[in-house]
Specification:
globular, TAT_signal, 8-stranded mixed β-sheet, Alkaline_phosphatase_core_sf, DUF1501, alpha/beta, 32% helix, Alkaline Phosphatase, subunit A, 466 residues
Amino acid sequence: MSADRSVYCPGPMSRRSFLQAGYMALGGLGLADLLRQRVLANSLNPQAGNREDTAVIFIWLLGGPSHMETYDMKPNAPSDYRGQLNPIATRTPGMEICELLPLHAKVADKFSIIRSISHEDSQHARGSVRFLSGRKTQSVNPVSEFPTVGPIVAKMREHRRVGVPNYVASSPRAYGGGSAYLGESAMPFVVGGNPGAPGYSVPNLSVSNSVKDRLDDRLGLLQSFDSFRRDVDLHGSMQALDNINEQALGMLTSDKARQAFDLSQESEATRDRYGRHKWGQRALLARRLVEAGTSFVTMYMNNPDIPGTQKNRIHSNWDIHAINGDLYYDLSVRMPPFDRAVSALIEDIYARGLDKRVLLVVSGEFGRTPRIDVKPGTKSKVMQPGRDHWPGAMSVLVSGGGAPMGQVIGSTTAKGEYAKDNKLDPNDLLATVYHFMGIDQNHEFLDRSGRPMPILPHGSPIKELI
């Protein structure tokens, strides 16, 4: 039994300081301070396995997309279930998906769809905790009391030195997400907004000339202590802190991180293929980051921000209740940029030889009610269709990871209500992710009360993806 016995150590920086620094500030000497906290928290993992070159891109569809309008169409169901959209064939025989995903259809041999994952919680925060941590909660707090998958990967791999942040996300936490008892040091380096926008720059990755001079001075001072360290450092602690300084200096004075975030290094054709919008450029940035060595990237595709749309008929995320938006107008706006961004990312993962070491997961926290609801919209003031929360059935897309693709894993009942064949749990998907990354799902951390908590309480890797 292994346990992290110092998982909560606030150290010299307050929570407010972390928030002001963007959770993972890489400016001045702040990075060295932050990385030093990780060592002082005694959270290095010497048993990280031998698959540390692997990476995961998690496209998070906050709010819960409708499986009935994406990857699990039911054309033979009654009209109030099947809805207004039709299925189309794909490159994978027998796999049909929504007509609004024609670019997906062209690369269907390079992804698999899991149709039989389900769980029991239909509230956003609790559903996100359930899906992303593998644990049930009664809390509706948007900050989970359990660490979710991104922070766990960050904690298990925080000893890696690759010149780029180990965990990057376009938002600090999913609704119902967070690092919980792993501490703020397991939170992501946050890159929000549209990374493809003109003049966009990643904060805290550049260093002024005056700060560079200070860094050089500090480095020289550290080097001048070499003989002193050899004489007095009996347990390696000073060397560990020195290594952290070296890592911080390396990230600040090398070009690797800045180049990874610089989308201008991509061709115009590539950027066009992903789509000149927030979602497309985030997907492209995710690919660049995992190529550079980042272990875990979470990119949110929520508000499509498409100019010229009727704002009173669309919603800010995938939570398209009838009161929030017109389901079919919203999807007509939302699905084309989603289709382009995800299909381009899948194409690139394979074309660039990343498919063995990069796993792509596309999901939200649950599906939507199989039966359509019609109500007056809060903003539109007219009757419009929508679907409500539904954890009884959902669809998840996976690509790469060295796994067999072109599969449909599991199925749902005739009206899309419940998992029917090969019923799976979110923990099985998480177990698949950890297995791929060489992370022991039974590794234990101590929670704030001192109880040993395994990464996953249960779950087995999905055999079709191994």
